[in-house]
Amino acid sequence: MADQEGAKPRKKAAKADPAAPPRVRRSYLRAPERRAQIIAAAQQVFAQSNLKGARTRDIAKAAKVNQATLFEHFASKEELFEEAVVKPLLDTMRGMNERIPRYAAAATLEDMQALGRTQTQRQIETMFDIFPLLAAALFSDLEQGKLLYREQVLPLLRARAEAIAPLTRESLDPETVEFAVFGTIFALAMHRNLSGAACDPAKLAEQVATIITTGFARPRGEE
What we know:
CATH topology of the domain at 81-214: Tetracycline Repressor, domain 2
Radius of gyration: 27 Å
Order of helices and strands: HHHHHHHH
CATH architecture of the domain at 81-214: Orthogonal Bundle
Low-confidence stretches: none
Number of helices: 8
CATH class of the domain at 81-214: Mainly Alpha
Mean pLDDT: 82
Number of strands: 0
Structural class: mainly alpha
């Protein structure tokens, strides 16, 4: 049948360009997988930009989702910060606490030193991993950091102090000892993360464990 007068001719369908790269379909992820993907991306963004500086659009971009999808999983940036930074941090610190009672099983100083090296190396490696999150959690927002420290971090440190109390000299305060150990490992992680220096956790653990078990002061008369 001839086209009616005045009717516009139909456009022919465009042929696919054989040289064009194939279109990549967006992979489908189930809700838990998508949530985990967003959390992983948020950890990177928060570590780089802190809580106030991080934008949800940047987190969504890093997670390769749109903001609408992000807010389907998290009601606010603050909730995402809690899930991505605070909870993993506290879970890791609790895991560190659970390993302390093993020191009580050491029969000799040599056994304690050997165990101390192993446990200290694990703590150093863990702190290396969580340092960006710990710094973001404590220092992104001063008031929130104070609250987190007083309500979550400090009780964990005090629990560690109670656990090492039976192993601590009577003249020393276990809480002060714990702060010293935690502070040392924190400083090593800070140095590694901020200076970019290569650090061997095993060698560092040997030094820290020696300081913990025998001290660092040179015996009198030793040159």
